[in-house]
Amino acid sequence: MTDNRTKPEIDAPEGPAPAELVIRDITVGDGDVAKAGDTVTVHYVGVEYATGEEFDSSWNSGQSIQFPLRGLIAGWQDGIPGMAVGGRRELVIPPHLAYGPAGGHFLGGKTLIFVIDLLAVG
């Protein structure tokens, strides 16, 4: 499969951060559907909700990333199942589903936005 997509741009949102996970399909895929516990191959970009500052992106290396969902933060474990290959999905993840309260991880206490392109499941 040739993927000619480009890295998404994420603007800092306005208004208060949501208290629960927000899932928004930007593009609905038509391939295999991810299930809880699957291993997924993705391209993604992550930004802080409050500032819109990027903190991580697979696009920067030009390489997609493969992970087992069970090894990821809860927001990804809850937000990717049901997504089909070929889709692009935005997840807005509050701290309790991301890296927990401030003080541990450098992203602790922060609401995060990820835009994820699902390239493969399996």
TrEMBL record:
This is Peptidyl-prolyl cis-trans isomerase. Its EC number is 5.2.1.8. Belongs to the FKBP-type PPIase family. It comes from the Bacteria. PROSITE patterns: FKBP_PPIASE. Residues 37-122 form the PPIase FKBP-type domain. Keywords: Isomerase, Rotamase.
